[in-house]
From TrEMBL:
Pfam families: APP1_cat. InterPro entries: APP1_cat, Mg2+_PAP. The lineage of its organism: Bacteria, Bacillati, Chloroflexota, Caldilineae, Caldilineales. Residues 129-282 form the Phosphatidate phosphatase APP1 catalytic domain. It comes from the Bacteria. GO terms for molecular function: phosphatidate phosphatase activity. This is DUF2183 domain-containing protein.
Length: 345
């Protein structure tokens, strides 16, 4: 019997100087090729189906290497592995990204040796705050409020044709730089999209020049369906990050179409001193706006500035008011919004 082709999919992750966290998945599939803007819709649809129909490798064993240290991890029934790596020596505090190698031990594979590089972020001492951002309808136009439109853009588009919101890359680059332009504030992405879409999201973000950051996606098992629909699974990584980086304040960014305002308001109730600002992209009806306005008023009563914004230019002006980005970067974002809108006409 011929051996199977096995792929390790490492996810961008995070850590602190003395400990790194590694997560990934082992599957029997070959990686999909990079997308092209010229790809026909049938090819995009086929690739999305392949992503959803992943063939995981339960019980796969991997070896994880960083410096002179080695660890082993065993994948769960869905092929996922995750491990916290206590380090004998702290990482260089000035280095933001660290390479951890992951090697397949079992099962035997046709394409052996199977070894991949996992990227792990540690915030540098220069960071003043961190950003936690939703993805769909916050940076990526997904039309989640309309099931039909959302299905069409998700399954018939690709990473080269899907549209970001105008100016969003300039805004996030400004937040990464900070008001001094050298802060390197980390950005984390939290989404209800399944882990199966990870490669698509990385390719989309890289194409749009969004700052690279760890991602927290969702595993769509039947037992997790309610959590996915309610979006409450997003609370776990937000709380985890707040606990991991107690010295940082956080900027939370989401949209009004789903439950981001309610979830972020819950975080404000728990940690009002830790939240520097909350931005909600307005993508919903007037009736929904009234709910978001009420939640914003409650957050402000606790000392947390929260507002809904029509576009990235408004968002830039808002965070600049609280010393998070420079006036020059506000102008850069405003210019990017104008130019990107004109390019679509």
């Amino acid at each position: 019997m011929s051996l199977p082709w096995v792929t390790i999919v490492p996810y961008r992750s995070f850590g602190v100087a003395e400990q790194l966290f590694v997560k990934g998945r082992v599957v029997y599939d070959r990686p999909l090729p990079p997308a092209s803007a010229a790809d026909p819709v049938w090819k995009n649809f086929h690739h999305m189906l392949r992503r959803l129909n992943s063939r995981e490798v339960p019980g796969a064993r991997v070896e994880i290497l960083f410096g002179d240290q080695r660890w082993q991890a065993v994948a769960d029934e869905e092929g996922y592995f995750s491990l916290s790596l206590p380090l004998a020596q702290p990482v260089d505090p000035a280095q933001v990204w660290h390479t951890v190698w992951v090697r397949l031990v079992e099962p035997l594979a046709r394409n052996a040796p199977v070894q991949v590089a996992a990227e792990v972020l540690t915030p540098p001492p220069s960071a003043r705050f961190a950003v936690i951002s939703d993805v769909d309808d916050t940076i990526l136009q997904s039309h989640a409020a309309s099931l039909l439109r959302s299905f069409v853009v998700t399954f018939f588009g690709n990473a080269q044709t899907r549209l970001p919101f105008a100016g969003v890359a300039a805004l996030y680059q400004a937040l990464w730089r900070g008001v001094s332009s050298v802060e390197m504030n980390p950005i984390f992405y939290v989404s209800s999209s399944p882990w199966n879409f990870y490669d698509f999201l990385v390719e989309f973000m890289d194409r749009c020049r969004l700052p690279a950051g760890p991602m927290f996606l969702h595993d769509y098992g039947l037992m997790r369906l309610f959590s996915a629909l309610s979006h409450r699974h997003k609370l776990k990584p937000v709380r985890w990050l707040l606990e991991t980086y107690p010295h940082l304040s956080f900027v939370l960014i989401g949209d009004s179409g789903q439950k981001d305002p309610e979830l972020y308001s819950e975080i404000v109730q728990e940690h009002p001193q830790r939240i520097a600002a909350i931005l909600i992209r307005d993508v919903s009806s007037r009736r929904r706006d009234l709910v978001v306005d009420s939640l914003s008023e409650s957050a402000r009563a606790l000392g947390v500035p929260m507002t809904k914004v029509a576009d990235s230019a408004q968002a830039a002006k808002f965070v600049a008011n609280f010393g998070l980005i420079s006036a020059e970067d506000v102008r850069t974002v405003q210019r990017a919004v104008r130019e990107e809108r004109q390019a679509l006409r």
